[in-house]
Please model this.
Amino acid sequence: MRRILSIMLIVLFVAVPTVFAGGDKEEASTEKVIRVAEQVPGLITPGVWDGQAFSMNSSIYEYLVELNAKTGEMEPVLATDWSSDDGSTWTIKLREGVKFHDGSDFTSEDVKFTIERTQDPSVGHLKRLDFEAVESVETPDDYTVVLKLSESRPTFMYQFTDYNMAILASDYDYASLGESKPMGTGPFVMQQLIPKESAALAKNSNYWDPNLPKIDKLLIYFVADIDASISMLESDRVDVVPFVTPTIKNRLDGAEGISVISPYQEQRYIAMITDMEPFDDNRVRLALKYTMDPEILARNVAQTELGDGFFYNETPIMNMLAEYKEIPFRGRDIEKAKELLAEAGYPNGVSVPLTYASDHPFGKELAQTIQELAAPAGFDIELKGYTRDIYLSQYWLNVPFSITGWGGRPDPSMLLALAFKGGGSWNESHIDNPKVNELINKISSEVDPEVRTGYYHELQEVFHEEGSVINVQVPLLVAINDRVVNYSHPLTMLPQYKYMDVK
Model:
């Protein structure tokens, strides 16, 4: 009842003219406004940000660099130039004349603070492992930063595209204000934030690029129920709804003035915890893999064919990336799966709960299909679905078997230390495989691209035989009102509202 009441309140909130902090009502006739229905966020402060509220945070904060949504190339933002001879020392030149929303100047001290904050134990920063290699951050002047690493990291600049590496102000109290008054250098300034309900952002009049943003306001409504979000879109109360399901896409295909686009593929990691029964035995993990059928998964989960926006493998590397190695599918073999379970001590099968986010696109369908495919081999899978905010805050990282939505990274090494290296902050399968750890370290430090690709291939071979993950890749589907033009959303998962406009 409480959840239903929450949704009703949100719908009521958007059904009337929006009132901002100053008490003025929205002037729809003169202002350009984009309205977004987003999932309910958990933590939003960069460093501990759990990956919700992308539209809000990507508009308030900025990064040293960003990805071009069309070309995939890394481009300047707060950094204007960067260079390194061997990947162990990086010199970064910063943009001058940039101000934070509180009026303070952006300088090299802010970059130094942001990087050193990754190692602050009181923060619990999610990029701690990736930035452990930084031995020193020097600031020879206000607009130059020199990073000295303990080892060569030839692709290190890609680390600054991670959504938790937004540049923060060195003199702002993010510990106290980050969740209630987020503040950065971004193209939009927070006007009003009602936690778990809504946010109103206004154009940053002091933004360093005078031609951006194109719109005046960005209004965001946090809605836990995807059907409620779509109803808001259909009744012209919001313009953008990310994370749409194939069923909803089919429903909207005939809707006038609404389009569904797919900027890129996302990942759904089916994770098996390696230090908890029954998946602490690799034979059980292999048995589950032998029950899978990618063709059936594609049809049941995404209502498509394998390869048509839907991909499957048993490694952390997305099929679309250059580092991916094509490994022939092992084939569905129920008798082999039964044999492996018996060898592992489960001759009569095994019972295990599968925990997932029920409101996240593809989650419910994927869980049900896994349950059905694995049953003939003796897997008795109990499905436990929760809304994504509850799943992430209460169950994720602590259950033996789970499905989690993961965005891709332009450089896959960014994800490896975070999710698959022993001690990684988001290591949901608790994998601590010496071979995997060694290969992740080699990948991070190897200067020669061909040798580095060879390490990636070796890593995928290890995962195929000993790994803890099945990687199902599905299209990110975004429903938008046709009045929104130049929708921009690169693989970093950070929608770029500063480039968007309305007709």
Q: What stands out?
A: The radius of gyration is 23 Å. The chain has three domains: 2-60+186-263+477-502, 65-172, 265-475.
